[in-house]
């Protein structure tokens, strides 16, 4: 059972490019997560991610700045073609990275068997949110930390932490994936590609935007019109979970509005709930986002111990949010 | 830190001043500087992937012309054309000029500009994404774009920062004045 005594929580920040990694390290990230430029990570977007050489250089740079590097190899290996995932783990180990974030049993097994000193974090893609599931990963592969799906409330996280012996990491800012991650097929349904297998939700080659004469923006995914935004109305990502659907004669957002997570106001409670690390989503985002969000959350985490006021810095983050709006998501579960 | 760039449109006078300038020397200069940048940073071409040689139109809302950019290991080109003549572009990115510059130098985040509707995308979204991510990695300061290094690069970057800051403040002021005039009328 983990102690729930409040310790400074670790700030885990995204990097989609070496430039973003440098920005995150400069802005005060305790750890930076990134992935290789292939299907082995769940942000497999054009122009994003690291070559093996860039990863090694990035690790060296981050270490000089006092930040750790965690390599996301968090998609599910394709049957009959597992070598790409094995090689990714080997590359991460050779780069001197501090941990690998994985979800697939074969990937975890390869890492545990061949790189026993490499720390393993369980990706949110594994969707492990019960003590039994988490204990299985810890006992079988020596997993040291689990990234929790964005579907648990703070009391549920506190209860979970009392029953497990591994660290927990929770998302505090950025895009909301509203399903228990690893179990969403919406993107596969519309495009044939999924975050879990090919590393992309709403692959950009299936996304299309058009603006009509009145300035109304139509967002399409795989040929389906999934949302429309009036002229001047803030837009969101082209994800199906945040699209509008018509059911029983009513049209509206069925799963979630276009909105981003901001759990800043819950940091104290998350710390008391025994959370070890706070994750910022956004490996697809630019340096301006990384510097702004990481800097603000650095102040916020430090303010728990030094009493500083992170309010203005956190307030300025609204412009980075989908639809210009923010939510505390499931952590508060006000709809129950 | 991200501010709201929609209030940073250049006043129409700038567009009128730029319109009669001859295009060929500007095209030649921009193409040469882009080719030199690509030669110095072959990693950028690797990062671009399938977008190499794909023409993408960059269309500043508040300038009279569009820029047609095609990145290539040996023959990168920037063409300046009328906004009505960007037919062969595979993707089009539209935004106020200062917002586009802010994307280049990392002042603005592309997704945030998209959410606020300052940036609009047409055509092949994956090409725009690849270009955007490549430019992010390019860490393009004015000094870097002009191929400078060391002190001279620092000098050019400081001057451009100051100049851009002033242009942004001026654009915001004139947008604010416009807004007040509209309220009064
Ligand atoms: S469609 Fe939504 S819930 Fe499903 S994987 Fe994508 S972001 Fe997550």
Report on the architecture of this protein.
The complex is a heterodimer of chains A (336) and B (185). By secondary structure, chain A is α/β, with parallel strands linked by helices. Chain A has 10 helices and 15 strands. Chain A has helices at 18-26, 52-64, 83-95, 105-114, 131-141, 154-163, 186-191, 267-272, 287-306, 311-315; strands spanning 10-14, 31-34, 68-73, 99-102, 119-122, 145-147, 167-175, 207-211, 217-221, 224-229, 244-247, 250-253, 260-262, 277-280, 326-327. Chain A has an 8-stranded parallel β-barrel, surrounded by 6 helices. In chain A, strands 8-9-10 form a 3-stranded antiparallel beta sheet, with no helix packed on it. In chain A, strand 3 (68-73), helix 3 and strand 4 (99-102) form a beta-alpha-beta unit. In chain A, helix 3 crosses helix 4. The longest helix of chain A is centred in the C-terminal third of the chain and has 20 residues, at 287-306. Chain B has 2 domains: 12-140, 2-Layer Sandwich (Nonspecific Lipid-transfer Protein, Chain A); 141-185. Chain B has 8 helices and 5 strands; from the N terminus they run H-H-H-E-E-E-E-H-H-E-H-H-H. Chain B has a 5-stranded mixed beta sheet. Chain A binds chain B through residues 16-20, 23, 45-48, 51, 54, 203-205, 207-211, 217, 229, 231-237, 284-289, 291-292, 316, 319-324, and chain B through 1-4, 43, 46-51, 102-103, 106-112, 114-117, 120-122, 124-134, 136-139. The complex binds iron/sulfur cluster. Iron/sulfur cluster binds at residues 177-179, 184, 186-187, 195, 201, 239-241 of chain A.
């Amino acid at each position: 059972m983990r102690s729930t005594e409040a310790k400074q929580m670790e700030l885990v920040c995204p990097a989609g490019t070496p430039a973003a990694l440098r920005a995150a390290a400069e802005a005060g990230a305790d750890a930076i997560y990134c992935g290789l430029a292939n299907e082995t990570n769940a942000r497999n977007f054009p122009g994003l991610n690291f070559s093996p050489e860039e990863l090694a250089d990035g690790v060296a740079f981050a270490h000089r700045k006092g930040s750790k590097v965690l390599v996301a190899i968090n998609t599910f290996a394709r049957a009959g073609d597992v070598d790409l995932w094995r090689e990714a783990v080997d590359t991460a180990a050779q780069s001197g990275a501090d941990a690998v974030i994985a979800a697939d049993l074969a990937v975890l097994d390869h890492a545990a068997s061949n790189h026993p000193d490499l720390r393993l974090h369980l990706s949110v893609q594994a969707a492990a949110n019960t003590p039994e599931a988490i204990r299985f990963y810890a006992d079988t592969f020596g997993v040291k930390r689990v990234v929790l799906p964005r579907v648990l409330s703070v009391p549920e996280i506190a209860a979970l932490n009392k029953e497990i012996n591994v660290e927990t990491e929770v998302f505090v800012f950025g895009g909301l994936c509203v399903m228990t991650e690893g179990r969403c097929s919406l993107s596969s349904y519309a495009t044939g590609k999924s975050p879990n297998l090919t590393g992309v939700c709403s692959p950009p080659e299936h996304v299309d935007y058009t603006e009509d004469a009145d300035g109304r923006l139509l967002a399409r995914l795989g040929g389906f019109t999934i949302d429309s935004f009036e002229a001047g109305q803030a837009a969101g990502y082209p994800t199906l979970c945040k699209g509008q659907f018509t059911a029983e004669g009513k049209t509206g957002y069925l799963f979630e509005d276009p909105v981003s997570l901001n759990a800043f106001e819950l940091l104290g409670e998350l710390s008391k709930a025994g959370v070890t690390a706070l994750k910022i989503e956004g490996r697809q985002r630019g340096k301006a986002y990384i510097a702004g969000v990481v800097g603000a959350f650095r102040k916020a985490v430090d303010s728990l111990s030094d009493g500083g006021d992170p309010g203005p810095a956190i307030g300025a983050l609204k412009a980075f949010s989908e639809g210009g709006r923010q939510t505390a998501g499931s952590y508060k579960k006000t709809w129950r | 830190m991200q501010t709201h760039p929609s209030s940073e449109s250049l006043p129409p006078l700038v567009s009128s001043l730029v319109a009669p300038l001859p295009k060929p020397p500007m095209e030649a200069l921009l193409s040469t500087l882009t080719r030199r940048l690509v030669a110095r940073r072959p990693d950028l071409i690797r990062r671009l992937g399938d977008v190499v040689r794909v023409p993408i139109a960059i269309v500043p809302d508040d300038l009279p012309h569009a820029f047609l950019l095609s990145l290539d290991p040996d023959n990168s080109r920037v063409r300046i054309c009328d906004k009505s003549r960007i037919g062969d572009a595979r993707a089009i990115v539209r935004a106020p000029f200062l917002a586009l510059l802010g994307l280049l130098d990392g002042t603005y985040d592309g997704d945030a500009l998209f959410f606020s509707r300052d940036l609009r995308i047409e055509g092949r979204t994956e090409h725009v994404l690849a270009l955007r991510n490549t430019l992010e990695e390019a860490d393009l300061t004015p000094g870097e774009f002009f191929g400078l290094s060391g002190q001279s690069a620092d000098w050019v970057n400081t001057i451009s920062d100051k100049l851009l800051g002033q242009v942004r403040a001026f654009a915001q002021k004139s947008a604010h004045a416009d807004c007040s005039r509209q309220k009064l009328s």
